[in-house]
Amino acid sequence: MSFDFDLTRFAKDMGLELDTVVRKTALDAHTRISKKTPKDTGRAQANWNVGAGAIDYTTTENTTIQRPTLKKGDGEKPVYITNNLPYIQALENGSSEN
């Protein structure tokens, strides 16, 4: 069974559109990932991006988490949650070294 299949079945069982379930799931995952990212300045938390149909490669100097949006129909595309800071992999592996 795949994650895609599980979401499709869940949407059908709940009487919801798959697009709505995918968008809500992605946005909830973004929030949880952002908040669980270790915080010093907050920049690593604020650089988690959500892209529909393509990866969002942007970075920001912001230190406050911004809630992304996905418009109707975006849930029909692959949704990517990414962080493109050069030190994010080290941070995710437990190091604060760049």
Task: Explain this structure.
There is one protein chain. With 98 residues, this protein is an alpha+beta fold. The chain is built from four helices and two strands; from the N terminus they run αααββα. It has a two-stranded antiparallel ribbon with strand order 1-2. The termini are far apart.
Helix content: 40-55%
Q: For the largest sheet, list the strands in their spatial order.
A: 1-2
Described by the principal axes of the CA atoms, the overall outline is: elongated
Largest sheet: number of strands, sense, barrel closure: 2 strands, antiparallel
Strands, helices and their partners?
Layout: H1 3-14, H2 18-36, H3 43-46, E1 48-52, E2 79-83, H4 88-92
State the main characteristics.
single chain; 98 residues; alpha+beta; two-stranded antiparallel ribbon; 10% strand
Short overview:
The chain contains four helices and two strands, in the order αααββα. It has helices at residues 3-14, 18-36, 43-46, 88-92, and strands at 48-52, 79-83. The longest helix has 19 residues, at 18-36.
